[in-house]
Amino acid sequence: MKKIVSAALAASLMSVPAWAESVKIGFVTTLTTGAAVIGNDMKNAVDLAVEHLGGEVAGLDIEVIYGDDGFAPETGKQVTDKLVKQDDVDFVAGYIWSHVLLASRKSVLDAGKFLISTNAGPSQMAGKLCDQNFFSTSWQNDQTPMAMGEVLNRQGVKSLYIMAPNYAAGKDMVAGVERTFKGEILGKDLTKWGADAQLDFSAELAKAKASGADGIFVFYPGAAGGAFIKQYQQAGLKDILPLYSVFTVDAISLPKLQEANFEAVLGSRTTQEWDPTLDNEANKKFVGDFKSKYGTYPSYYAAQSYDAIMMIADAVEAVDGDLSNKDGIRAAMKEADYGSVRGDYTYGNNNIPIQNFYLREVVKDGDGTWTTKVVETVFENHQDSFAAECSLN
Amino acid sequence: MDLSLIVIQALNGVQLGLLLFLVASGLTLVFGILDFVNLAHAALYMVGAFVCASFTFFLGNFIWAVLAALPVVAFVGYLVERFVARPLYTRDHLDHVLATFGLILVIDTLVHMIWGPAGIAVPLPDWLRGQITLPGGIVVPSFRLLIIGAGLAAAGGLFWLVNHTRLGMLIRAGASNRTMVSALGIDIQMLFSLVFALGATLAGLAGMLIAPITEASMGMGNSIIITAFVVIIVGGIGSMKGAFIAALLIGLIDTLGRSFLDDLFKIVMSPAAAETSAPAVSAMLIYIIMALVLALRPQGLFPPKVR
């Protein structure tokens, strides 16, 4: 018996080189804790991208290895180390959370591999910590709230109350809206974040209401966003304190809010670099196939993850599958001509997209499903504020 | 900073305190009477929220769902006692921690398999979705008042049960000398199962009450279980009265800290420094209180009289 097993084992080992070689992509996201809902959306998008590519590029099989960061920087770094050292992947992509990306960046970049953020955009990595092998298919954290600050100015909002979680991205978001908003900021709360994040905002909402501000700006990604919206409605603030949010109301929170009928969210506005209604071929295919495969609208997390896989595939194609040609891969990615679902964009010197930002409104679609649509373009070809601090050119 | 804001924040603090009490009371019962460290108490809190969420969609009404879910959680608590806790009573606390930590992982994964990773938003009936205006023009969400009412009712019921019923007498007797109680012909195993199920029910109730505010989600118990341990350490392990007072104290300190600490700090330091330090200090505040209590009164504020 033992002999047969070992023979089979040897046979299977020997058969490995007979497979087509593969391009290995490590994908780090959150697959446990309450934030797993985001990770799942990203994973679905990656699987869809691989499916659209037919599972191979330039004669190489696409092999995606998922890693779970457990919503914690230390776990994220561990799983990144495992992907880089043990699995020896060619690309590491993913990362929802800025603090996880900041903790993990060195493991990837020091090994000379490519790192592609499909969400997190900490200011440090757009500026002083920029790297020729680090690319983003999302944005720098400050950009989206900067667009929201501009919207607030245009709408004549004079005073604002701000709430965000107390971690790297939360601080960037606050800095972003403060950079463009010209009115007065009447109060600010940074709440506890992480696996034991604060989700009961009663005290903060009472303060916000008492501040008498014209509006409230919040950044609560993932499950926290749904929790915030519910308490916002329960506190009856819709007419007193209009809601302006970034990364809070999205395809992750809307289905649950609709199911529980929290109508306060309809009509609320948010800024983003992508929307399911953007009119281009790649986006129509992505949104249509995502909806028919998974039954929900994709979120921007999904769109950015789909883009990352497409960008990698485009670059591997450009070097004819020669993965040792790092310069060729880098140059191909830098062109950003892979057909992004957000439409065309370019890369700045720090490899952060220079792209449009849109104002989106929550509406019911033709089937009555709650989703978003583009209201107007806030910024055209917007570059982040930290590019000048980056020494690359 | 006007008076009505202080009143609202105090109400918010009381509401948080009562939720903490529901979790901490079960923890202190099990820890104080069964001498069993139950980290998985938080998982029962989560199970309560998920079961209630499913029942809400099934029965179409949140209140009926809570009433239907309570016995389910009690039964889950009984199963945990029977198959995990009972074989471990004679072992030391480290084994309890290991086993119940493993149980957290098992229950988390089961929840993931049954309900998926997305979490469930729990809808409320219309009469609970609005706000109520109290005298003095203070507007509070009606559901928050319901939490305060339910918390007080549960606390009252628990005190009555422990202090004025035969079962309560047995529980107290079992806590002071379990060998003697069983020698007198009382089924101590049964008693312990009941206490465990009771603790599970209270934790489950807390989970059900918080679910419409946040949502039923995986790992939702992680944040409250740590605070609940702080509560029972501050209150005195095994003391119901201590758990009640400490829970309200911690709830109020946490809420008022989050509300007013930055304003206080601005008196003594620059606004920028206050803005960065206030969230950090308010997140630490309850642990500072716990450290103080441990240093000055290690047995807790209201240790049980008979041990």
Task: For the structure shown, list the relevant keywords.
heterodimer; A: 393 residues; alpha/beta; Rossmann fold; 6-stranded mixed β-sheet; 14 strands; globular; B: 307 residues; mainly alpha; ABC transporter involved in vitamin B12 uptake, BtuC; two-stranded antiparallel sheet; 2 strands
In short:
With 393 residues, chain A is an alpha/beta fold. Chain A has helices at 2-15, 36-52, 73-86, 98-109, 123-126, 143-154, 168-180, 202-211, 223-234, 253-259, 281-294, 300-318, 326-335; strands at 22-29, 56-57, 60-68, 91-94, 114-117, 134-136, 159-165, 184-191, 215-218, 243-245, 269-272, 346-347, 353-364, 370-382. Chain B has helices at residues 3-33, 41-59, 62-85, 93-115, 126-129, 142-164, 166-176, 178-183, 188-210, 221-235, 240-268, 271-296, and strands at residues 131-134, 138-141.
Fold topology:
The complex is a heterodimer of chains A (393) and B (307).
Chain A (H helix, E strand, L loop, with lengths): L1 H14 L6 E8 L6 H17 L3 E2 L2 E9 L4 H14 L4 E4 L3 H12 L4 E4 L5 H4 L7 E3 L6 H12 L4 E7 L2 H13 L3 E8 L10 H10 L3 E4 L4 H12 L8 E3 L7 H7 L9 E4 L8 H14 L5 H19 L7 H10 L10 E2 L5 E12 L5 E13 L11
Parallel strand pairs in A: 1-3, 1-4, 4-5, 5-6, 7-8, 7-9, 9-10, 10-11
Antiparallel strand pairs in A: 2-3, 11-13, 12-13, 13-14
Helix pairs in contact in A: 2-11, 2-12, 3-4, 6-7, 9-10, 12-13
Chain B lengths: L2 H31 L7 H19 L2 H24 L7 H23 L10 H4 L1 E4 L3 E4 H23 L1 H11 L1 H6 L4 H23 L10 H15 L4 H29 L2 H26 L11
Antiparallel strand pairs in B: 1-2
For the record, the CATH architecture of chain B stands as Orthogonal Bundle
User: How confident overall, as mean pLDDT of chain B?
Assistant: 90
In terms of quaternary structure, the protein is heterodimer
CATH superfamily of the largest domain in chain A: Response regulator
Strand content of chain B: under 5%
Global shape of chain B: globular
Order of helices and strands of chain A: HEHEEHEHEHEHEHEHEHEHEHHHEEE
Beta-strand residue percentage of chain A: 15-25%
For the termini of chain A, the CA-CA separation is 63 Å
> Any idea what the radius of gyration of chain B is?
20 Å
Helix tally of chain B?
Answer: 12
Low-confidence stretches of chain B: none
> How much is the radius of gyration of chain A in Å?
21 Å
Tell me the series of helices and strands of chain B, N- to C-terminal: HHHHHEEHHHHHHH
Largest sheet of chain B: 2 strands, antiparallel
Please report the first level of CATH classification, the CATH class of the largest domain in chain A: Alpha Beta
